[in-house]
Design goal:
heterotrimer, A mainly alpha (291), B alpha/beta (351), C mainly alpha (268), A: 291 residues, mainly alpha, two-stranded antiparallel sheet, 12 helices, disordered C terminus, C: 268 residues, MetI-like fold, 0% strand, globular
């Protein structure tokens, strides 16, 4: 008896040990920066360079100006739209991918990733070639007699959305795939055999079981999409201002580090709230601990 | 899958073994050069190493601010020679991160074009040697634009709707409106900056893109038909399409200088002097500027620049240098106003 | 699994094909004579010539690959162990710790970069490959962690328990039972982490040393003169090399055919 409990305890200690590298790393390299950012956001900027250690709330007050609030709103809108589209395209992809044979699973995994191993800037240039006036897309539409003259597609909002979806898709696909892959498809078959319609079988069995993956996918796409400002720069001609962009500008142009920090803190809080809300609304209480 | 990992790993190991062979050899010491990528043709760097035996380590930064932050962290050490923009050098000097130059060590010091010396960031030329200047100009395609563009004010013309591209520097863009309103680039009057912001909102419908990299491509492909460009971009645009017209805005000409300086604790300052002197040699300098595409800051090099480039790399003789103004550091409140105005402008462009 | 329709496979094919369109255009334009990317100046190998003269480009590429491999491996170890441990232990604030550990993808890169720089200077760590690997590992962990966790949630616990009841040590259970089950998730996470590492410039610029340029740093810092088409040529070569490597791996993988086909039967 005593032996068994000591074994259990040893095992619990072992389990805890496995989390130790993560916890240590998190404390050093995540909590550290977070504390730094929060502290910085309450400091005063120096006249030309650096900060003065004087407490102020001015940086937060400044965010309340309509132009900066508008930037948050624009970022959120774009992030929502991109995430929705990424789910629409990526979820079925991950789901179908999980049904492939092992050989094709591996091939698809690699085929998915290869384009993303090259510089994102270069891939964006590929999109520029497509969207350019008289470019690939225009020529295609005109050849099909859908349009008669070049559309000005580059440097527009839709171009930005396409770029976002393209950059974020693999995150969603992999997240859905890694949870759908362990899905026992015989359960779906069983539900069908019991008379459930394909739709019903999907919603009651498949969707429910792949929800953890979908949720991870949302976190991995929604969160970064707030910061992918270079896509808005390159495909949107810098006319869609995102929070990530604003933060970069504060540091690299205005030399206002505390304001950049305050913007980051608000961004972090906002994303946290949204993900928390999403979790509540999608009713994934049983997935205790996820996200 | 395991097999593949093994394969990838062994391939990596193989390459490491090869890479190991080409490790840097310590011959005559080294020079750590810290600047943007693409500032020197490979031949110039190789030529320097060949002549002096000094290995050049070329380290890069993206923005001036990154450079200053890194230099500050290194307490003025680690790097031997830095090339950056004028305004950040002023700050670096104030922060005590730059050492005074001993110009006696530079045989070719006399070659520098005095137009680019004695500027705000180093009024007595104690710390820096210029390496290239940029002048903001308007470039447009006369075949596709109905009006004749003479200055910034013409960019507001309704015929240019959704047809104008500008570079992404907020001081340059806001500066256009300031110039149209007859103000200085460096005004610290918040009301004037806000008035410029109002003026810019009227320009928004004409703006198709605001960006820094390869904006000349959009002008050449016809995505925009008029653009405010950096000098190196103007050079590339003109080389690709000689029909484009380059305009020195009548409201006044803004310009900037890139300059070299030696950090206060540079580990190999002597080598930095050797390199500075090497690239001041007129024939080497000419080679550098043809590659760089910025205005040549070396007077003696001007005549060595080949015919096809000369017009783009030297100031036209009829330019009134007194109408030229540099963009200088301004106070925090003015910067905040500029930032706000620029963001409002960008948002308005996206509507 | 009966294959009722080919439609899903068609969907996979179409989406994959669309993902390759921009890459194919980059390949095409790597043979463009003109320096201006918007003008087709005729077929030329000029940029390949330029590329091969640029020794530093290959050094930077090599640095990037080493960095990507090392940081995704570190992230795989820390992330997998962490997700596994977190699924078993219970302690107050566990949810908070898990949440915070995924934050590096939330903190704007530029801020992470500056903080890392200050932190490494503070502890006196010399800037170079070590600092790069630490920084990249930190933003790679969330990818592995989240994917492995999504797979562990609701996973059939009976297998590891059965193994344990049969007397296997916890380490053995983890290595022989759990690890193979979560392997696809680890692999996906590593692939993503590698891609993120190969693409990062903002953090790298801050934490790199004087002689450890990475490829993105070298490419994205051409701000003063504009990015040259040389990079298109490099991307094309990278792309070709990756395909070649995969092809060779597939050929080699064909040798132990028995095991493969066995697997094909047992897995759904």
């Amino acid at each position: 008896m005593a032996k068994e409990t000591s074994l259990k305890r040893r095992q619990a200690r072992g389990d805890f040990l496995t989390t130790l590298p993560l916890i240590l790393f998190t404390v050093m390299f995540v909590v550290g920066p977070l504390v730094y950012v929060v502290v910085l956001s309450f400091l005063t900027r120096a006249e030309t360079w650096g900060t003065v250690p004087e407490f102020t709330l001015k940086n937060y007050a400044d965010i309340a100006q309509p132009v900066y609030l508008g930037t948050f709103w624009q970022s959120l809108r774009l992030a929502f739209l991109s995430t929705l589209l990424v789910i629409a395209i990526g979820y079925p992809f991950g789901y179908f991918m999980a049904k492939l044979g092992p050989k094709w699973k591996r091939r698809t995994t690699l085929l998915l990733m290869i384009p993303f191993w090259t510089s994102s800037l270069i891939r964006l240039y590929g999109w520029i070639i497509i969207f350019r006036a008289g470019g690939v897309f225009d020529s295609l539409l005109m050849a099909l007699h859908i349009t008669s003259e070049p559309l000005k597609l580059l440097y527009t909002y839709p171009a930005v959305v396409v770029g976002m979806v393209y950059a974020l898709l693999p995150f969603m696909i992999f997240a859905v795939y890694s949870s759908a892959e362990k899905l026992d498809f015989s359960l779906v078959e069983a539900a069908r055999d019991l008379g459930a319609s394909p739709m019903k079988a999907f919603f009651t069995v498949s969707l429910k079981l792949t929800l953890p993956g979908l949720l991870s996918g949302v976190v991995l796409t929604f969160v970064p999409s707030m910061g992918l400002f270079f896509i808005a720069d390159i495909l949107g001609g810098n006319k869609v201002v995102l929070v990530g962009n604003l933060i970069q500008d504060q540091l690299m142009k205005a030399h206002n580090w505390p304001f950049a920090a305050a913007l980051s803190v608000v961004l972090l809080v906002l994303t946290t709230v949204i993900i928390w809300l999403y979790r509540k609304l999608s009713g994934v209480k049983d997935l205790e601990g996820l996200v | 899958m395991k097999k593949m990992f093994a394969l990838v790993l062994s391939a990596l190991l193989l390459v490491t073994a090869f890479a190991g062979c080409s490790g840097s050899s310590q011959k005559n010491g080294e020079l750590v050069l810290f600047t943007w990528e693409g500032m020197f043709p490979q031949e110039v760097l190789d030529g320097f190493t060949e002549e002096t035996g000094i290995e050049v380590t070329y380290s890069n930064f993206d923005y001036d601010e990154t450079m200053l932050a890194k230099l500050e962290t290194a307490k003025g050490g680690d790097y031997d020679l830095i090339i950056a923009d004028d305004y950040i050098i002023e700050t670096a000097i104030q922060e005590g991160l730059v050492q005074e130059l001993d110009t006696g060590k530079l045989e070719n010091y006399g070659c520098i074009n005095p137009v680019y010396q004695g500027q705000f960031y180093d009024p007595e030329d104690k710390y820096t040697v210029p390496y290239g200047a940029g002048v903001q100009t308007i470039v447009y395609n006369p075949q596709a634009v109905d009006i004749e563009i003479k200055g910034y004010a013409d960019l507001w013309d309704p015929s240019l709707e959704d047809d104008v591209g500008v570079i992404g520097s907020y001081r340059v863009v806001n500066g256009m409106a300031l110039k149209v309103l007859g103000e200085s680039y460096n005004t610290e009057d918040i009301a004037a900056i806000e008035a410029a912001g109002e003026k810019l909102l009227e320009l928004a419908p004409n703006i198709r893109l605001i960006k820094d990299d390869n904006t000349q491509d959009d002008l050449i492909s016809g995505e925009v038909n008029a653009a405010v460009l950096y000098t190196s971009q103007v050079t590339m645009a003109k080389m690709a399409n000689p029909d484009l017209k380059v305009v020195f805005p009548e409201e006044g000409i803004g310009f900037g200088i890139m300059a070299q300086f030696i950090p206060s604790n540079a580990p190999h300052a002597e080598n930095a002097y050797k390199f500075m002197d090497y690239i001041l040699r007129p024939e080497i300098s000419a080679q550098c500027f043809e590659y760089l595409g910025y205005y040549c800051t070396n007077k003696d090099a001007e005549e060595m620049i080949s015919e096809e480039y000369r017009d783009f790399l030297t100031l036209p003789a009829d330019i009134d240098t007194s109408s030229m103004e540099m963009i200088e550091n301004i106070g925090a409140d003015a910067v905040a106003a500029h930032d706000k105005v620029f963001n409002e402008f960008r948002t308005a462009c996206g509507q | 699994m009966k294959n009722r329709t080919k439609l899903p496979n068609l969907y996979l094919g179409v989406v994959l094909a669309l993902m390759y369109v921009p890459i194919l255009l980059v390949i095409l334009y790597s043979f463009n004579e003109s320096k201006i990317s918007s003008v087709w100046g005729g077929f030329s190998l000029k940029w390949y010539g330029e590329l091969f003269r640029d020794r530093e480009m290959f050094q930077a590429l090599w640095n990037s690959i080493v960095l990507g491999v090392l940081s995704s491996l570190c992230a795989a170890v820390i992330g997998t162990l962490g997700a596994y441990g977190m699924s078993k232990v219970k302690f107050p604030l566990k949810g908070a710790v898990e949440y915070v550990s995924t934050l590096p993808i939330m903190i704007p890169e530029i801020i992470l970069g500056m903080v890392f720089m200050a932190f490494f200077a503070l502890i006196g760590l010399p800037f170079g490959m070590t600092t790069l690997v630490i920084a990249h590992t930190s933003f790679s962990i969330p990818y592995v962690f989240m994917l492995v966790k999504a797979r562990l949630v609701g996973m059939d616990k009976s297998l590891p328990e059965a193994a344990q009841d049969l007397g296997a040590s916890p380490v053995r259970v983890f290595l022989d039972v759990t690890l193979p089950l979560v392997f696809p998730a680890i692999l996906s996470g590593m692939l993503l982490a590698f891609a993120m590492s190969m693409d990062d410039v903002i953090i790298s610029v801050f934490v790199t040393g004087v002689d450890t340029n990475t490829l993105p740093v070298k490419v994205y810092t051409q701000l003063k003169t504009g990015v040259t088409p040389e990079i298109n040529a490099l991307c094309t070569l990278l792309f070709a090399a990756t395909l070649l490597l995969c092809g060779v791996a597939a050929l080699l993988g064909r040798a132990p055919k028995k095991q493969e086909s066995e697997k094909d039967v047992t897995e759904p």
